[in-house]
Structure formats: C-alpha cells, structure tokens
Design the sequence.
C-alpha cells in the first residue's frame, strides 16, 4: 500500500490585481496601500468578465478554467516565486495555470486533469460555464500515473511537492515537516529514524491486523512524541480564546454596518476603497447582526441570492491598557467568514482567508498601539462566490441569450443540496495575550491497564527562554498529575475515562490541563496561562467493529446542518442548546458535521455531553472533473490542516471525514482522495479517516484508503420511489457487497425520506409522515441484522428540515428532517426515539476492564 508524505512549506495565498486588461499575482502579506488606479480583488470576484475587459465580448463563447492555452505558450506577467501565470487572448478569459517545478520556469509537466482538455458547457440556455482556478500556491503535484495506486514516477519531493513511500504496515512511514518553532528537536519515537525535515517510523511487525499482545501497553507510551513530529504545515496555533489571569477577551457580536456591492462589476468597493474611511461615508448602510447570514435578515430579494462582495464594518472600543501596554499582544479573530474574506483595521490590510467555517486571526498590536487610540475600525469584505476549486465547489453560469436575459446575467450553480448562506457566521473577537505566550497545545491520550496517559506538547512564541509547568486537574479541581517542559506524559492512576452519552453511568468526564508559562524578556518577567479541557479515551477500528475505550461502539445518531430561520448559518446559543436537548431526548449518541466544520462551541458542548462527532470538512459537491485537479487538491489539503489544528484536542471527535458524496468513480478521484486521506492521517495518526460515498462499491476508487466505509443510500426515495417493498433486499445487497469487497466496518451514514409535517396518508404515500416512518422501519429491519456482524452505525438524514436553493423538487427547503426547521417533532422522531433508547440500553452502563486498543504503528486500526 502507498502512503502520501507531505513535505510542504506553509501555503501562501495569491491575490490578483486587475488593472486594465492585465492580471498580476503577488504573495499574500501586509502590502502597501493600493494605488488609486489599482483594484484589489481576487478570483472570488466572479463578475461579468466583459466588464473587466478580460472576458468574451457580447454573444461570444466563454471558456475558462483548467483548460488548454489555446495552442499558445503563456506570456509571463510579473511572475514572482513561481506564482500563477496569466494569458491574454482576444475574446477569451485569461487562463490561470499552476507553476512548473522550477522557479520562474515554464509550465511543461503540469497536466491538469490528466492532461485532458475541458469540455465546453453546452446547454440551450447557457452559453458557457465559468471555471476559474482558486487562490493558493499550487503545489507541483504530478498527475496520477497510468495505474491507480501505482508509483508516481515523476513526482519530485521538495518544498511544495509530494513524495510517496511504500511500506507493508498501515502507517509505516509518516514524513512530516520538522517541528514548528519552539518544538524540541529530539522528539522521535523509539525505533524511528530521523531524516531531513521528517520522521520515519519502522514498519509494524504484525501487519495491518496482527496480534494485539504486549505491544498495546507500550504503544501509547511511545506514541505521544510522534504526534508532534508530524507537524502541521500551517504556522502557529489556533487555541480557542479563553479569558484567564493573563488573557482578556472582547466579543464584537451585535450590529455591524453592512453594504452589498450591487454594482455591475461587484468591484466598486475596491475602486472607491471603502476600507479607507467609515463605510457610511461612501453610501447608505444597513444594520446587520453578527453572527448571522446576511441572506434572510432583510426584505430585499436581491440580497437573499446575492453573489459577490459584501462589506461589514464595526467600530470597537478598546480598553486603555490594550493600547498603551506594549507588553500586550492584541489579536483579531474571525470565527467564520463565508467564503473569501479580506480584513482591514483602520484602513490597513491585516488578513485574508479562503474558505468558510474555520477561524482565522491577525495580530493587530502595532496598529492599535501606534498612537493615542481609544477604538479601532474593523472592515471585512466577504465574497461568497464558489468556483470548481473552492471547497465546496461551484460554478458561475452566464446566460448570454439577450432575448431572455439581461446583458451580463449570471447565477451561481452548486452541486450540493443546502442553501449557500454567507456572511460573518460566527463571533468576531478581540483577545489579548502577553507578547511571549502559549501558542499551541496538542494532547493525545491513551490507557495502560487502569492508568490514563496524557501526552502533551506545548509551543510558545516570543522567546526561546521559557519555563513551562503543567497540571492536570480532575472534575473537582484536585491535582492528579504534574509535569514540566514543552512536552511530556502525565500518568493518571485509576483514570476516569471519557465515555459517550448513554454508554456509561458517568459519561463525558473531562479533566483540565492547566499550562503556566514564565519567561524572562528584555522588558522583564512575563507569564501566560491557558486551561484546556481533556478527555482520556481511545479509539480503535477492527474489520467489523468501532471501539471506544476498548468497547464496541454503535453510532445511533443524526446528520445535522447549521441552519435556522432568519439567522441562516449564524451561530445562536439558544438554538444550539435546544438542539442538544433534542439529541438527548432522542437518545442519539453521535452526529456528523454534515457538510462542513461546525462552530467551536458545538464541539465544546459535544465534549461536555458525550456526543460523538464525525468531523467533516466542506468537501461536498465535488462532482466535476475540474474539482479533482491540483488547485482543488492544494486547497483541500490546507482545509484539512486547518480543521485538524482546530479540533485535534476534542475527545468527542473520533473520526475525520474528508468529503461527502464525491464523484469517486472518476479516474482522478482515486489519486485525489488517497492524497487527502493520507495527508489527514499524517496530520493526526490517532483517529480513523473516512469519506461518505454514494458510489457503487465496485466503482469507488477511494474506498480502499478509508478506515470505515460510510454509505449514503435512499432506497424507495430517489430510485424505486414509492416501492417500500424493495428496501430490505436492496439494503441487504448494499451491505454485503461493500463488506465482501473491503472487509471494513460500515456506517449507514445517510438514509431517509422527505416529509411535510401534517401530511398523512394510509396506506403510506410519499411526503406523508406515514411514509417516512415506514421507510425507516424497513431500513431498521436490515440494520438490526447487520449490526450483529459489521455495521457499526446509522445516522438519519436529517435532524431537522433545512433551507436549499429553490427548485421544483424542494418545497421551501429539504423536508427530510425528523424535526421541522422550527424543531418540532414529526412522527418519525418518536419512532427513532424508541429505537435509539433500545439500542442504548443494550450496552448502557456496562463496566469492563479497559485496555488500550492500539497496535504498532497504527494507533486506531487492529
């Protein structure tokens, strides 16, 4: 088996400046203020390209994306550091291509989509499909070789590239970048050998599913140092902002000034440089609540389906000490901005971020401490445009038949079934730390007999001369273990383990890891403090079981969405608490974050209540061949790095999901999915990795690389609709085919039926509450048979009704919820509640001796 090894340098985003008909690219950094003649934008600014002077003239065809160069060699235009190149061709949009392996070199060797030319989009009413590459430095990833799974001859290891190694063990050669700044250099697993910039493990002696003897007890003891050797390519940590003796926090939730750029070009805000002065001075603004989606708050239909740039602004009053104490570091953190965001403070550019659902931040200390300031003006420009290389992907479709559509008319097209809400969906926060501070903490846990093992690594910034003290406190605040230094292992005799809800009489037990830092600096002594909740638990996978703390765990839960009336995807505490109360009432013990990472507060509540999480990235709608190219892969890998960095310490997170329903039968998909899965395993070897498939078992090219098979199927709904009598046969065939082929545990990750609350028909008819109940009952008959063999979970689609794009198939959104969008139960909710509590009572409160279920080099697979 082949395993991908990441040796990438930290990613650098690229941004595009449009000036006349030229495209140039520069590195992302805090750059000089833009000249009046320049327009700051990027490929997320997908607008009628004829207005930019880049696209086709009226009635001409449009072809763009990972396509050919029209038979020409690209013209280099201000190429720096091997960044993206542009080509200008009359009547064509400039085509952007990934750099070749050599600095400033030609593009020979880069083969997007295996060297195939894209097909021109042909439809009666649609002239063309705009497929513009995403931002981000594209790693020189060669196209897959002739045989899927074969060696990648020509893949050249080096900065920004990938190499492959072969090993008989499961994860026998994990090569990752060297330790981040502040990490100890000597942190190798015994038996591992050091190579420049990475760590290589020795092969497992027992094979992928060998014996489990005495190696178990020592596996976790030795595992800890390895995990921080597999460092993220991202620089810096992303600790959740917590108040403490050395840290303060100021939430900026509330009303912000808001304006959508409704100009035809969507670039007026950059032309007039709205970020340079208060937003109200350049035109009218709206009050916009943060956090929330902007789509459903107002009464303007144009805003609900708006595609392009929107602008947010907030004046933040700063405590006097923040602006005058040069020993205080002030950080601006944005929890989620969908999709591409640019941030200014007092008119100065401080940050950019690609991708919604994950946090990003910027150190603004120098800006707020540069003069007698009592406040700062924060401006955020957000673009919700999706392209084939964003995550999730989408396309901009231009309708050019002027007898039917206005000139320049375009719409956003997506291949996923939920509404593309946008805006500042989570809190915007200002917080402080000392200038020498705790930057990141990584914790992994295990069990040796009845002793809990807590492996930790702590990274600091600001000084190399720091002293670190670590205390582990139990739930009553009593110290149970103590350590010193930036890495180590704490041993907890008679440890309380973190158990899922309904699996133990004391579920979700959390310790507190308190980290204290002291440092001597030129300005004098500095101290910092951070407390991290820790749950001690193990995760393991056999060929037919999913084990938590050595016991078989059966997922009986739901798929969810961050979705509600008015607020859209905006975070809301009352709604979150209501949802968790319903989960507990239902007897659910798990959910999948379909189809994107949920708010950090959601993960924290899962830790506290014992709700198990399959943590999914925004890899939904990956169906076009263009979305399996190098640009998409580069971005997907970075998203997984950001997700693992954020959620790595949550005991509730037991598995990563890298995608939902990709076109895994396409030839490039095998290489793509194998790469993302291997990279995720290198980032976090302690958790299994999966993706959710709806492909045929015989055609799925990514299934060989997952640890658990997750299958979506809608028998008697999307096919053979109305025929409940075929569900059992088809479902049984599905399970047996997948297991016979892969010998891996299976989760029924989606199933369900559309139901409009209050519709009743007997005998059951589609869309009635009776039909939803009957379909679920047919699934449950087969699940009850197969869960005794190799099925390890069932997740209903969906927890609650949610909004989608308008279509003849959707009556105000998707109605497959067992609760309405307002969280009122349908008949199926009571059926599912009876079932889930029955399942829970089969294993509830059983006590057993817990042993570590780790083996050799694979900490989760037996």
Sequence:
């Amino acid at each position: 088996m082949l395993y991908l090894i990441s040796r990438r340098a930290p990613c650098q985003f690229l941004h595009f400046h449009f000036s006349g008909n030229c495209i140039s690219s520069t590195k992302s950094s805090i750059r000089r203020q833009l000249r009046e003649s320049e327009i700051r934008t990027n490929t997320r600014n997908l607008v009628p390209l004829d207005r930019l002077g880049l696209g086709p003239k009226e009635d001409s065809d449009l072809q763009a994306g990972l396509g050919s160069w029209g038979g020409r060699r690209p013209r280099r235009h201000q190429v720096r550091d091997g960044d993206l190149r542009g080509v200008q061709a009359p009547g064509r949009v400039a085509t952007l291509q990934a750099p070749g392996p050599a600095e400033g070199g030609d593009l020979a060797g880069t083969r997007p989509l295996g060297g195939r030319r894209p097909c021109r989009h042909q439809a009666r009413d649609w002239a063309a499909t705009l497929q513009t590459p995403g931002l981000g430095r594209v790693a020189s990833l060669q196209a897959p070789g002739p045989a899927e799974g074969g060696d990648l001859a020509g893949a050249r290891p080096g900065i920004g590239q990938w190499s492959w190694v072969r090993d008989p063990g499961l994860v026998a050669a994990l090569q990752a970048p060297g330790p981040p700044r502040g990490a100890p250099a000597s942190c190798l697993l015994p038996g591992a050998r050091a190579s420049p910039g990475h760590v290589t493990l020795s092969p497992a002696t027992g094979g992928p599913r060998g014996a489990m003897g005495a190696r178990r007890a020592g596996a976790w003891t030795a595992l800890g140092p390895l995990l921080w050797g597999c460092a993220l390519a991202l620089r810096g940590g992303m600790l959740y902002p917590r108040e403490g003796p050395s840290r303060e926090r100021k939430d900026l939730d509330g009303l912000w000034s808001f304006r959508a750029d409704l100009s035809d070009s969507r670039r007026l805000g950059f032309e007039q440089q709205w970020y340079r002065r208060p937003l109200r001075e350049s035109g009218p603004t709206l009050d916009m609540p943060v956090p929330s989606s902007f789509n459903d708050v107002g009464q303007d239909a144009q805003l609900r389906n708006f595609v392009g740039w929107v602008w947010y602004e907030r004046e933040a009053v700063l405590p006097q000490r923040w602006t005058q104490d040069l020993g205080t570091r002030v950080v601006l953190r944005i929890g989620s901005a969908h999709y591409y965001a640019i941030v200014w403070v007092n008119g100065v550019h401080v940050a950019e971020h690609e991708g919604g659902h994950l946090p990003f931040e910027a150190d603004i200390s120098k800006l707020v401490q540069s003069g007698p300031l009592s406040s700062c003006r924060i401006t955020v420009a957000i673009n919700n445009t999706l392209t084939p290389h964003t995550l999730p992907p989408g396309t901009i479709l231009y309708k050019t038949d002027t007898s039917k559509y206005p000139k320049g008319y375009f719409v956003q097209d997506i291949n996923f079934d939920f509404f593309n809400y946008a805006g500042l969906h989570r809190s915007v926060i200002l917080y402080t730390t000392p200038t020498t501070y705790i930057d990141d903490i990584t914790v992994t846990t295990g069990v040796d007999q009845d002793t809990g093992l807590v492996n930790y690594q702590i990274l600091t910034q600001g000084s190399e001369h720091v002293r670190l003290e670590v205390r582990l406190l139990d739930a009553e605040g009593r110290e149970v273990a103590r350590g010193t230094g930036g890495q180590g292992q704490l041993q907890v005799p008679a440890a309380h383990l973190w158990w899922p809800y309904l699996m133990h009489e004391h579920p979700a037990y959390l310790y507190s890891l308190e980290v204290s830092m002291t440092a001597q600096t030129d300005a004098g002594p500095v101290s910092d403090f951070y407390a991290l909740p820790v749950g001690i638990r193990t995760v393991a996978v056999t060929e037919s079981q999913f084990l938590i703390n050595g016991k078989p765990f059966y997922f009986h839960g739901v798929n969810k969405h961050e979705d509600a009336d008015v607020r859209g995807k905006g975070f809301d505490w009352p709604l979150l608490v209501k949802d968790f109360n319903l989960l507990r009432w239902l007897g659910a013990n798990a959910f999948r974050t379909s189809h994107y990472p949920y708010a950090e507060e959601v993960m924290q509540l899962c830790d506290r209540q014992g709700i198990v999480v399959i943590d999914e990235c925004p890899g939904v709608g990956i169906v076009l061949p263009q979305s399996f190219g190098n640009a998409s892969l580069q971005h997907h890998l970075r998203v997984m790095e950001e997700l693992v960095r954020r959620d790595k310490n949550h005991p509730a997170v037991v598995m990563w999901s890298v995608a939902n329903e990709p076109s895994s039968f396409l030839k490039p998909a095998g290489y793509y999915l194998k790469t993302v899965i291997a990279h995720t395993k290198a980032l976090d070897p302690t958790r299994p990795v999966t993706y959710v498939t709806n492909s045929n078992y015989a055609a799925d090219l990514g299934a060989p690389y997952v640890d658990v098979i997750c299958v979506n199927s809608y028998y008697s709904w999307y096919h053979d609709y109305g025929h409940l009598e075929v569900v059992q046969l088809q479902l049984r065939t599905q399970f047996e085919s997948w297991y016979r082929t892969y010998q891996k545990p299976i989760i029924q990750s989606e199933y369900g039926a559309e139901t409009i609350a209050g519709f009743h028909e007997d005998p059951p008819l589609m869309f009635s509450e009776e039909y939803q109940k009957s379909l679920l009952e047919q699934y449950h008959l087969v699940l009850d048979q197969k869960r005794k063999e190799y099925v390890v979970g069932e997740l209903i689609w969906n927890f609650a009704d949610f909004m989608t794009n308008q279509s003849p198939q959707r009556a105000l959104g998707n109605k497959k919820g067992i609760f309405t969008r307002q969280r009122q139960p349908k008949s199926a909710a009571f059926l599912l509640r009876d079932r889930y509590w029955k399942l829970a009572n089969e294993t509830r409160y059983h006590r057993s001796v817990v042993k570590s279920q780790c083996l050799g080099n694979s900490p989760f697979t037996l």
Summary: DSSP finds twelve helices and 40 strands in the chain. The CA atoms of residues 119 and 536 lie 52 Å apart.
